[in-house]
Design a protein that fits this description.
The protein is of the alpha/beta class. Helix content is 34%, strand content 20%. It has a five-stranded parallel beta sheet with strand order 3-2-1-4-5, sandwiched between helices. A two-stranded antiparallel sheet has the order 6-7.
Amino acid sequence: MAYFPLFVDLEGRQVLVVGGGKIAVRRVRTLLEFGCQITVVSPEVCEELREKVLWKKKRYDETDLESLGNVGEASRFIFVLAAAAPEVNEKIVCDCRKKKIPVNNASNRDQCDFYFPGIYMKDEMVVGITASGLDHHKAKKVRIAIQKAMEEAAENDKE
C-alpha cells in the first residue's frame, strides 16, 4: 500500500494520544510544534507531558473518543495516536474505525491509517520522512541527512 504525503494545518485542532511512554512523549513533543490541542489518556505520564497537554489520568475506554469543547466537526479529534500496550492499541483501532477517526497504532504498522513521520523544521521549511512503517531507523538516517544538508545550505547562504 502506498501512502500519500499530506501536510495538514493542525493549529487549534484536537489530537488524542493514548499512552504516556517514550513513543507518546516523542510524538507529543513534535505535535506541540504545530499548535494542536493534545489530550493524553494514560494512568501515568512524565512531568513534561503534564505541563503541556490535557491529561486524563485513567485507562482508555471508548468514551475517550468523544468530542471535546464545541459541538460539531471542528471539535472532533482529527486523529488518534495509539501508543499504549498492544492489546489496548488494537481496541483503540477498532473504536476509531467505527467512528471513522484516522488512527496510528504504534505497535502494529498494519493497523495504521497514517504514519507519523520523522520531522525536521527550520524557519518556514518542514520536511517529513517516513519509510511507510517498514524501517524507522532508515527513515531516521534519511531525516538526519536532510537536516545536515539543509543546515549546510543555510550556512552557505550566509557566506
